[in-house]
Amino acid sequence: MPQTLMATEASSRPILSVENLNVGFNTRKGMFDVLHGVSFELNRGRTTAIVGESGSGKSVTARAILNMVPRPGQINGGRVLFRPSKGSEIETTALDPRGKAIRDIRGGKIGMIFQEPMSSLSPVHTIGNQIIEAVRLHRDCTKQEAREIARQMLEQVEIPKPEKALDQYAFEFSGGMRQRAMIAMALSCHPDVLIADEPTTALDVTTQAEILDLMRKLQVELNMAIMFITHDMGVVAELADDVVVMEKGHVVETGQTGPLFAEQQHPYTKRLLGAVKRLEEPAAAKVRPAADAREILRVDDLRLHFEKREGFFQRVTDVNKAVDGVSFSLKEGEALGIVGESGSGKTTVGRCIARVYDPEGTVDYRGSNLVTAGKAELQSYRQQIRMIFQDPFASLNPRMTVKQLIAEPLVVNGVASGSELEDRVATLLREVGLQPEMMERYPHAFSGGQRQRIVVARAIALEPKLVIADEPTSALDVSIRTQVLDLLLRLQAEMGLSFIFISHDMAVIRYFCDRVAVMYRGKIVEIGETEEIIQNPQHPYTQALLSSVPIADPALRGTRQRHRYLGEGA
Amino acid sequence: MIWRYILKRILWMVPFLFGVSIVAFLLIQAPPGDYLTTYIAKLGESNEVLDQASIENLRARFGLDQPLYVQYFKWVSRLLVGDFGMSFEWRQPVSDLVWGRMGLTLCLSMATLLFTWAVAFPIGVYSAVRKYSIGDYLATTIGFIGLATPNFLLALILMYIGVVHFGADVGGLFSNEYKNAPWSWAKVWDLMKHLWLPVVVLGTSATASLIRIMRANLLDELNKPYVDTARAKGLSEFWLIMKYPVRVALNPFVSTIGWVLPNLVSGAVVTAIVLSLPTAGPLMLQALLAQDMYLAGAFVLMLSSLTVIGMLLSDILLVLLDPRVKYD
């Protein structure tokens, strides 16, 4: 039977081939290539992970497949061949980027979901409106039929009360629900290929685990090819069949997931996996606090409630207990991690200790209570307690030079001035592994990792005793993450610093912290030695959290029972 | 829910307007002297001198001899029953004077508003979508010239061109033969012929600033991820821009409605004088100069009420347009 033979032949060929793709950005200084001859294939029913650090060209590749490279970028070499299940082979890169032919493919045959579920849906249109639009663009049906399809899709991605959800807006949904709605929209026309650009990066680990499960389930149901862009090796190990490793616009290595994790050919892949592997155990360079170390901080029954007031008399109608009776202590030279999902109150605890907020309870810093301290008193403590923030791009004023940025706390507190100031800044820069010659430059001239070093230099400028680091490595690539953590470890050893280290990332906490406190809905549910908690979690929430963390080892895929913690009131 | 909100806002207007009436009254009384002083000075110019007795007589007739608070309460209590008092200068009821002018003012303002939107909206969108194109630079240049040129100067230039090159009749809103004629289609047509000039003059600067606002807002929105989502759905470029980013960038358009209403009264006084438009602005200026207490008071009160109503209107429209806006 020649016909079936042909059919099997067609389905055995890759559904999408990227061949020697070149993309350049037309800048004032001439053409600047961001993709250099990228080639790989996507196959029906298989998930291909595109892995690389920021700037490796992953997202540009995804957009080039749909021929929607943002200006001033343009495809200037190679081609993308798409072989849909119905119809003949199409070269998407040869189509007019605004024409009808490519628009039929976008959303109709190749669906795409994006990283930011917060901003990827229109804020002023209902979820239903946006899905119905996608359906009606590619399927010939009435509004009622489209609405019914949209409802079924929402049901399929397991959104509760799909009929009601159709008339809701994106901002009424949580991050995970929004990403589900995005997936529903991308899959509403049963595409052959789904491109997912970091779809779980902005989500909590437990939510991430659910979304990954959902994508796996839908792939089997719809027999799609999935192109999964990520920087997270754990996610790759959990989900991908094939892996394409990209570095600076080149594909450096391609292979099946199992073999690739077992043995890497290219040094970049080795480095990438090495950085991940290093984060799976406590740092070798970690200096444990002395056994007889004194207590530097004791937090007792810390509370912070945000009250929502309404009406003429401003009655309190709703109380959000952001921090609900948190107690812990910290020794000199110790690093305490605070881990939890978004909304658990971990950041708020850090800010309460730094007295950004006015909490209730006791924050005993070396014998004096910071909660009741007056302005003048706080001023002197603020020299000893410093903060490091998550986003190194947003926490440095772009209009100040590095010298001004680092010198600011010194000047404000009247510690140094003139040439002495310059010497101090130079020393600090050397301390964090940057050259003093860089001090006249502005922050935009530095990479993310270098910026975070500048932030660290600013934090230690006043020789503090306690540093509160709020997700200091979350915005950084894995390889740079370990570098910044190693820097903090060295400074801790040299200066005897104590750390409160706030993070959602268990691996980072394990690497850096002596003890860890697990927070859930404003409360600490478990606190203890880091290794002990990771090996033997007691509280069901901690167990759920740990079970959701993807493990960077494909051999362990499916060996764990994943479960979600549904605590009181959930 | 939204009805409760509107009701609440309207109730809040009552104490607010009461406060405004006090401030307005005090402000009008603040300059030294009163209407009589101005009146006597005017008579003095034509060598007429009033003796002390007739001055006292007049002062008593106008009620200006009573203490301030008595004058205020008399005014306010009559306001409550809809009586705005008599204009000293025009010897006519204030309400007749004001309403006579409001109709044309309203007509002119609405025409200007429509002109502003009709021009600013497409140009603003074009400027943003084709950023740094020749068309964008052209719109930007014209926009800045429009912003920088004083309206009355533009009025003079356009009048000059109109008279010298087209022989058009450019003063006022009507030709002489229609000025006091009853309304007819011919009179409406005459109004249309006169209306374009003040509309263009009054609309330029507003148009220019709206283009800039629209461009800046849309530029912010064009790079948002939801635009990419819409593109990846297969929507055509034109519709995706119209449906998503433009819709979000529309908010400032709606907000401008709030400013339009008070502008009915106080806007473009100088231009109105230059073009001799029979609108409310010049009348208000005159009333303030002459310390024509009741007329000026009525204008100030109306300005404040219109501001408050305008703000309420644009707030309601914002709520309807943008589901993210909360009204509690």
Q: What would a concise description of this structure say?
A:
By secondary structure, chain A is an alpha/beta fold. Chain A has helices at 2-12, 58-65, 100-105, 127-138, 143-156, 162-165, 175-187, 205-222, 233-239, 257-262, 267-278, 346-353, 375-384, 402-412, 418-431, 448-460, 478-495, 506-512, 530-535, 540-548, and strands at 16-27, 30-42, 47-51, 73-82, 90-91, 110-113, 193-197, 225-230, 242-247, 250-256, 295-310, 315-331, 335-339, 360-365, 368-369, 385-388, 466-470, 498-503, 515-520, 523-529. In chain A, the strands form four sheets. Chain A has a six-stranded mixed sheet with strand order 6-7-8-3-9-10, with helices on both faces. A six-stranded mixed sheet of chain A has the order 16-17-18-13-19-20, with helices on both faces. Chain A has a four-stranded antiparallel sheet with strand order 2-1-4-5, covered by helices on one side.
Task: Summarize the structure in words.
The complex is a heterodimer of chains A (570) and B (328). By secondary structure, chain A is of the alpha/beta class. Chain A has a domain at 333-529: P-loop containing nucleotide triphosphate hydrolases (Rossmann fold, 3-Layer(aba) Sandwich). In chain A, 36% of the residues lie in helices and 25% in strands. Chain A has helices at 2-12, 58-65, 100-105, 127-138, 143-156, 162-165, 175-187, 205-222, 233-239, 257-262, 267-278, 346-353, 375-384, 402-412, 418-431, 448-460, 478-495, 506-512, 530-535, 540-548; strands at 16-27, 30-42, 47-51, 73-82, 90-91, 110-113, 193-197, 225-230, 242-247, 250-256, 295-310, 315-331, 335-339, 360-365, 368-369, 385-388, 466-470, 498-503, 515-520, 523-529. In chain A, the strands form four sheets. In chain A, strands 6-7-8-3-9-10 form a six-stranded mixed β-sheet, sandwiched between helices. In chain A, strand 9 and strand 10 (250-256) form a beta hairpin. In chain A, helix 4 packs across helix 5 and helix 11 crosses helix 17 (478-495). Chain A is globular, with a radius of gyration of 26 Å. In chain A, 46% of the residues are buried. The model of chain A is unreliable at 1-9 (pLDDT under 50). Chain B is mainly α and 328 residues long. In chain B, helix 5 runs antiparallel to helix 12 (251-266) and helix 7 packs across helix 8. The relative contact order of chain B is 0.14. The mean pLDDT of chain B is 82.
